[in-house]
Amino acid sequence: MALAAIYLRLSRNEEQLNIDEILGSHRNALIKLAKQNNLTYDVYQEISSGVNNVRPQLNLLLNKLDEYDYLLVMDIDRISRDNAYAEQIKTMLIAHDIKILTPHGAIDLAQESNEMLFSFQAMMANFEYKQIRKRLGRGRLAAAEQGRWVMSNKAPLGYKKDENQRLVIVEDEATIIRHIFQRTVQRVSANEIAKELDTYGWRSRSGKILTTSHISSIRKNVVYYGVVQACRRVNGRVVDEVFVENAHEPIVSKQTFLEVQKILEENKSGSYFNKKKANRRLQNLLYCYCCGRKRYIQTDGTDIDYIKSCSYKISNNTCKDRGHKYLPVEVYVLQKVKDKKADFEIALEKLKTHDTSEEENKLNSQKESLIRQIGKFDNRQKNLKVMRMDGEITKAEFLELSEENERQIKNVKQQIELINIQLENLNNTEEEQSRLARCIETLNKIDNIEPEVCNTFLKTFIKKIWFSTNSRVDHNTRREVPEVTIEIEWL
Predict the structure, then answer these.
(1) What are the C-alpha distances in Å from 330 to residues 150, 167, 323, 449, 487?
(2) Is the pLDDT reported for residue 351 higher than 80?
(3) How many beta carbons lie within 10 A of that of residue 371, not counting itself?
(4) Least confident of 4-13, 85-94, 241-250, 424-433
(5) CATH of domain 159-266
(6) pTM, rounded to two decimals
(7) Are 394 and 380 in contact (CB under 8 A)?
(8) Which residues, at least 6 apart from 23, have a Cβ–Cβ distance to it below 8 Å?
(9) By mean pLDDT, which of 140-149, 156-165, 247-256, 304-313 is the weakest?
């Protein structure tokens, strides 16, 4: 008696239906077909897309083709919807002299007409797959425009889907999301946040530890300030996109989300996060005034903290800015910070009297600068198009440079949006008054608070502290010691 291989594949679209019922129906039909043709059989079944070429059960079957005489499938598209892969399988079936049986009829690949029929049906299956994907993509975008969550079957951490496919906050999970955003605003790294979540026993929905990768993804997800976003791609490029704000209740405010994006963008060009627990007040804030690289603090044999000598290379020349005792620098910076108390008090008084003109002028100045940046990026995009038309750059280079330019435009627009929110908030100053009051309170006790707390506080309004001894590392102990340079770059 001849031996047949029965191959059953359930598509991803059918997975939402009754899996057992569909597979059972297909299995019974093919087993009945095998019995009608007096065939013994082995059954292979799996759930996979027809264009996926990595299918364990199909690959197992193909590796054992020399054992079979027939292949039984519900239709040709169950083998593959990918033209190239279908042709490879056809070649293997011909080489092993295997006939295909379906409930609709037999296909003997040894006959030229049947071989052409197989190729034609595979081509039609591929075309049908593309049309189905196109319709599903358009339907998903239409649903997204209505504020419904259609990006995946699972709702993101912090939400669940209601009967109308809209996201509803799950408060226990939302606590985790808020903590991640709050700690990022305080410039705590993803690694440290992950350790904190593990310490608190906070886990993913499936009970797994939340890693730095999870945290990085969460911090960039617009869904958390109430946005539903979807797009349709063709050949890897976005051809249609939907972006709906206020689609559901946000877990974090839009202002907080944009502040986090600004911090993440800044971190690409410098270290603005606490990489580990700070045990000194100026940790991760000191930068070399000569070469621009970070300066590190170490303890010598007598337990005295020193700012290490700088030894980075600049154009093949090593920056040899001399080291210096750390404590005098800290005292100087803290005094400058204490001097800011008067500015905070003036700002608080102005807010109480609703005099926000100075702050408004500052924000508008920043906004104008950002708008000018967008103008430069727009000109850059025009230049890229000219360079592409003149053949100065390849299509791949054009696409890569255009995507990077668009990313920078998006970042600048987010910063403008953040400033617009801050300008709107000037009329509602209660939150800003509370923030300034907390700053003044912290300044009053800054000498007595823990280094880590002080370090986090300083990073809320200090971007970098530029430092140089203005002398090079050498063995001349009699040289005149110049005055050091300390410049604070405020946020």
Answers:
(1) 53, 48, 14, 14, 12
(2) no
(3) 12
(4) 424-433
(5) 3.90.1750.20
(6) 0.49
(7) no
(8) 8, 10, 45
(9) 140-149
Residue closest to 183 by CA, chosen among 255, 251, 263 = 263
Residue 486: strand, helix, or coil: strand
Q: What is the CATH number of domain 3-139?
A: 3.40.50.1390
Under 8 Å between Cβ of 276 and 296: no
Burial class from Cβ neighbours inside 10 Å (0-12, 13-18, 19+) for residue 158 reads buried
* Cβ atoms of 99 and 32 closer than 8 Å: no
Interstrand relation of 3-10 and 40-47 (parallel, antiparallel or unpaired): parallel
Question: What angle (nearest 5°) sits at the alpha carbon of residue 190, between those of residues 184 and 195?
Answer: 110
Look up residue 203 and give its amino acid.
R
Helix axes 171-185 and 212-219, enclosed angle (nearest 10) = 90
Q: Give yes or no for a contact between 48 and 55, defined as CB atoms under 8 angstroms apart.
A: yes
Domain residue spans of the chain = 3-139, 159-266, 277-341+434-491, 357-428
How do beta strands 286-288 and 313-314 pair? unpaired
Q: What sign does the CA torsion over 44, 49, 53, 56 have?
A: negative
Per DSSP, the residues of 344-412 read HHHHHHHHHTT--HHHHHHHHHHHHHHHHHHHHHHHHHHHHHHHHHTTSS-HHHHHHHHHHHHHHHHHH
Mean pLDDT value across residues 270-279: 59
**Residues 307 and 324 sit within 8 Å (Cβ to Cβ):** yes
180 backbone dihedrals φ, ψ, rounded to 5°: -60, -45
Percent of the chain with pLDDT strictly greater than 70: 85
pLDDT tens digits, one per residue of 447-471: 888 888 888 888 877 888 999 988 8
What percent of the chain has pLDDT above 90? 15
